[in-house]
Amino acid sequence: MTPRNFKQGLSTETLTVPETAAYLNLSVETVRRLLLDGQIYGFRLGRGKVHILRDSVTKYLDEQQTLPVYDYAAQRRMQQLRRQRLKQLTREAAARARAAAHGPSRSTAAQRSTAAHRSPAAQRSAARPASARTPRAGRAS
User: I need a surface site. Which of 3, 39, 50, 107 has the fewest CB within 10 A?
Assistant: First the structure.
């Protein structure tokens, strides 16, 4: 005798809730939750035990194996990279704030790099003291 809600094409082999829990290595409460959610199929005959179809259990196992596995190591690496980037951005922002607070000042290295890009005549002019520089002819002082 088959129950009225028995699905066509499935085997008649059934498991009880505790048997299914042991087979899936889950708790009895979790198996009942899977039944309520419709992830595995079962039926009750009268007021007796719940009978779970073995085919629905194997189908559930197949679906669980095809789900992607969550990579906790990758998540930790991403969090570490985010923390490092945040520290770097914080340091850069603090350096910009200090530079803005002290005004536009140039370091000696920056002055040297700017001097390297000047023409030779401009470099000679910059090297002489201001009193030694003479104004060009034809210009008003």
Answer: 107
